[in-house]
Specification:
The chain is an all-alpha fold. It is built from ten helices and two strands.
């Protein structure tokens, strides 16, 4: 019997309803530590996304041949191997950014969202849905890291897209823009407390949007049910 996979539901879960950063609150350590600029958040987010996609795919492929009692150590070994490859590639091709991110690149292995998706989704689904789940969860996480980094960079330094050449090469060096001229900066924004404040604002904004959507859905349901009740 073939089960239909709801890819739209998977995407909505990854980007919004079950976002690893805003809802599950996983990966907090790197999210708060490295998002002092947009490029730092984007770089770590893309590395995490690639890890999620590859590890989900590999776990899905071996899900029927791994014994249940050794599945978690096997998943951790897969994730660690994937992260090692990504770390070596970053060291080779984006070395300056890799140096800035430092220990938080190998610490992707300990991100609970990765082992969580391997156990909760990839170990129970076929290859394609597992890849889509890893991609959407990763991009949802990356979007939060990038937005938080851009917010902290703007408030802390008055710039946007600073040092993007570290990730995309010299062709984008001109993207760096100083929005607020003669702005001396707000130091707290680029320190760890600023990350907590910024993340709190993003979570509050998401909750506000969800509450407004729920009220609209309730009103539509009430209007639809009014004629039947009459």
């Amino acid at each position: 019997m073939t089960t239909t996979v709801d890819y739209k539901r998977i995407a909505i879960d990854g980007f919004w309803d079950n976002n690893p950063a805003l809802v599950q609150l996983l990966g907090m350590c790197p999210m708060l530590a490295v998002t002092s600029t947009a490029v730092n958040g984007l770089g770590l987010g893309l590395a995490t996304t690639l890890t999620l996609v590859l590890s989900n795919g590999l776990v899905s492929l071996i899900r029927n041949i791994v014994r249940p009692e050794v599945r978690i150590p096997t998943f951790v070994l897969i994730i660690a191997s994937v992260v090692t490859v990504i770390e070596l590639l970053m060291n080779a091709y984006v070395h300056e950014l890799y140096t800035i991110l430092g220990i938080f690149v190998p610490l992707i292995v300990t991100n609970c969202s990765i082992i969580g998706r391997a156990e909760a989704f990839a170990s129970k689904h076929a290859l394609l849905p597992s890849l889509v789940d890893g991609l959407t969860m990763g991009l949802g996480f990356t979007a939060v890291l990038f937005t938080l980094g851009m917010l902290r960079e703007f408030v802390g330094q008055g710039t946007v897209f600073s040092q993007f050449h570290l990730l995309f090469g010299e062709a984008v060096r001109g993207w760096s823009t100083t929005v607020l001229t003669h702005y001396e900066g707000f130091l707290v924004a680029v320190l760890p407390p600023g990350a907590f404040f910024g993340l709190g604002l993003l979570i509050a904004l998401k909750n506000l949007v969800d509450a407004r959507r729920a009220r609209r859905a309730h009103r539509r349901a009430a209007r639809a049910g009014a004629p039947a009740a009459a």
